[in-house]
Amino acid sequence: MATKLVDLVYWRSMRWTGVVFTGLVIGLASQFQLSAITVLSHVCLGVMCVTFPLRLYYKLLELLRWNPGVHPFQSYLDNDSTLTDKETVMLVEEAVLLIAFAVTEIKRLLFIDSMIDSIKFVVLLYLLTYIGVLTNGLTLVITAVIAVFSLPLLYKKQQVRAAGHDFSMTSQNCKNMLSFMFLSLYNSVRPSSAPAPAPKPAAAPAVKQKAKSK
To answer: By CB atoms within 10 Å of each CB, which of 28, 87, 143, 201 scores lowest?
Structure first.
């Protein structure tokens, strides 16, 4: 089951991942207008609108002896999805352990077993009140589904791209860019030097007035 989930998340089977992702998003988005029972009923009716005519078509071919009586969905019917007693016990034990762990943690946080953890819990609850005002739980679930099917694949592609990238050239370019930025910043904030004093004009020679007594 874990392997199948990983294959779905990483889009290793484009057809099945597309069907599951589209179905989840459309089904969750339909919850804004319709109830869960209505959505589930319409989904089942939509599936049967495809399977029932196809089964009738194969049955008609079988009556006309053009088909050796092959069921069109025999592979799905033969797929064994039952759980053994051991697998059932393991799943129940895991579910019980998760529930017990959640109850223990909530009790520890509510009754202040650790001051730091309880403060973090209070801050989280306070932030959730604002998130609850801005949006609802269904929107968060749809966002989480989109993130689960998008972020792992995007992260994997970025890892592949980073593996083939020359980091030495990148680091050198970053150093040059940072040096240029700091130099430009220094030149912009450096106080400009005081302008040199302008030379004083030469004093005009004093005109000597000769007083001539006549």
So the answer is: 201
Integer Cα distance of 152 and 145 in angstroms? 12
112: left (phi over 0), alpha (psi -120 to 50) or beta: left
Distance CA(6)–CA(13), nearest Å, equals: 10
Phi, psi of 119 (to 5 degrees): -65, -40
Structure tokens at 23: 């179905």
Instruction: Kindly report whether the global pTM for this prediction surpasses the value 0.85.
Output: no
Q: How confident is the model at residue 96 (pLDDT cuts 50, 70, 90)?
A: very high
Q: What is the Cα 12 distance to its own chain's centre?
A: 18
Both tokens of residue 176? 């040059």
Segment holding 187, helix H or strand E: helix 167-189
Percent of the chain surpassing pLDDT 90: 15
Whether the Cβ atoms of residue 80 and residue 73 lie closer than 8 Å to each other: no
Distance (Å, whole) CA 34 – CA 11 = 29
DSSP 8-state symbol, 214: -
> What is the greatest pairwise CA distance in the chain?
157
> Which pLDDT score, from 0 to 100, does residue 99 have?
94
d(CA 93, CA 88): 9
How many whole angstroms separate alpha carbon 199 and alpha carbon 63? 117
